[in-house]
Amino acid sequence: MKTVTVIDYGMSNLRSVSKALEHVAGNDWLVQVSDKAEVILHADKVVFPGQGAIGNCMTLLKQTGVAEVISKALENKPFLGICLGLQTLLTRSEESGGTAGFNWIGGTVRRFVERGERIKIPHMGWNQVQQAQAHPLWLGIPDNSRFYFVHSYYVAPEENRVIAGTTPYGGIQFTSAVAQDNVFAVQFHPEKSQHVGLTLLKNFLDW
After folding, report:
1. Alpha helix (H) ranges present in 79-121?
2. Which residues lie below 8 Å from residue 74, measured CB to CB, with a gap of 6+?
3. pTM to 2 decimals?
4. Nearest-CA neighbor of 82 among 122, 49, 126?
């Protein structure tokens, strides 16, 4: 049986992600939640969800040794990042006074600029994702489908070639999905995005 491991580092809503994966996995996959290096590195695929502040996230990842495991998994595992699991992949974030990421993708995580009643922070709720490139994880998902977001910061990659999806908010079209080699990562929460989110998770297992 093939295995997909959801990385557990002590500060994420892992239950909803793992349950969504179990829903689309059928009998072909074993869904595991673990912080153990041997479990993560022996999995066929890896999912890295996250929520909360990136400073606390990176501190916990380093303290628990999971940061090193993620760096290894990024080298060759089919890898799906969700929310903070996307933001930590960039070079640095403006959050928490400036926080270094994994630098897997060059760029900065920036805060939305609040504009009175028109632009609320965090960006919360359903919003469209415009697909910026063809990718197996978009299979069966119409362009401009709506996904569920909760975040105050957004990623700004240095190179356009890694941008897989964009979303309008705060007067900008921000990057809401990236793809590079074996890695696909999204700012939205597929596990909370009903049919299109479950389709994306199924596509990840099929990828």
Report:
1. 84-87
2. 89, 102, 104, 182, 183
3. 0.95
4. 49
The CATH number of 2-206, from 3.40.50.880, 3.90.1150.10, 3.30.70.980, 3.40.50.2000, is 3.40.50.880
Tell me how far apart the alpha carbons of residues 123 and 172 are, in angstroms, rounded to a whole number. Answer: 12
Active-site residue flag, 189: yes
How far is residue 50's CA from residue 56's CA, in Å, rounded to a whole number? 11
57, 95, 123, 189: the catalytic one is: 189
β-bridge partners, 81: 48, 185
CB atoms within 10 A of CB 103: 13
191 classed as catalytic? yes
Q: How far apart are CA 199 and CA 207, in angstroms?
A: 12
Spot the catalytic one: 83, 95, 123, 151.
83
The residue extents of the domains of the chain are 2-206
Q: Is 22 a residue of the active site?
A: no
- Show the DSSP H helices in 79-193 as ranges: 84-87
Contact of 69 with 103, CB cutoff 8 Å: no
What is the tens place of the pLDDT at every residue in 59-91? 988 888 889 999 999 999 999 999 999 999 999
Helix 54-64, helix 66-76: angle, nearest 10: 90
